[in-house]
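User: I'm preparing a small set of examples for a lab meeting where we compare how different chains pack in three dimensions. I only have the primary sequence for this one, and I'd like the structure in token form so I can line it up with the others. Please keep the answer compact; I'll paste it straight into my notes.
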Amino acid sequence: MKKILVTIAATLAVLLVGSLIFISSGAYDISQLTPHNGLTLKIIKMTTHNSINRRMKENVVPANLKDTEQIIAGFKHYNEMCVSCHGAPGVKTNEMVEGLYPRPPELYKHGEEDAALEFFWIIKNGIKMTSMPAFKPSHDDTKIWAMTAFVTQKLAKMSPEEYKAWIAKYVVASKDE
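Assistant: Understood. Below is the structure token output for the 177-residue chain.
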């Protein structure tokens, strides 16, 4: 038994020292221009998915998620803060997105009505080591739920013409008032 414990301890020590040597060597390329290898990508996706699933259940979807006023408020926030990275129907992302890795998903291409808890959690908390910021420090839950409502209930269903019309009606018109 003692031999097994010594072998396990020695193996862990070798792994720890090897990891420290690798980390301090600078051999791992952290450039945004170099994609992750397959194993790293799988680990990141699994960790992200499991972490969000574990934590998002502490929230409850509000009853007004499908209300027009909620969706319009979310549109205004999305158009102001999210469209430059995530795009919209007929609206290209900012050129800065070309240099981001991982690239932000184009949310308007995904109709995910049943993903409100996940979107709320991501918008509120952000995701480490991506370009997704946490909005909790600057937005209360009401505003975050409004963005969630727009993204999950309306965005993927909009045509470029409808998105442009909403800009004219809810963004440009409100600036004129």
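A couple of notes for your slides: Residues 2-25 form the longest helix (24 residues). The CA atoms of residues 53 and 118 lie 7 Å apart.

User: Perfect, thanks.
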